[in-house]
Amino acid sequence: MTTPAPRGNQLSDADYERATTERARHARARGLAAPYIPGGEDPEAEATARRERALMRLLIVMVVAIITGGFAISIVGLIITGGR
Q1: What confidence category does residue 5 fall into, taking pLDDT thresholds of 50, 70 and 90?
Q2: Where are the domains of the chain?
Q3: What is the rounded distance in angstroms from the CA atom of residue 54 to the CA atom of residue 72?
């Protein structure tokens, strides 16, 4: 009595669908063992972009305020001490 030859790696239909997704192909192309790439599509891309633009403006204002504040404090200090 002979045993049947192994037929290779058999995947179920669900496993095959997961293995052939775009994310899985990109993961294999990068040499990852599992078809998982952190991140993904943002379901609210426009809302996120608006929030990021507002935060970027806030960051720029804060940097300008810190630099201007440093100059202002230096000038006030020079005026008070008479430039010594």
Answers
A1: very low
A2: 46-84
A3: 26
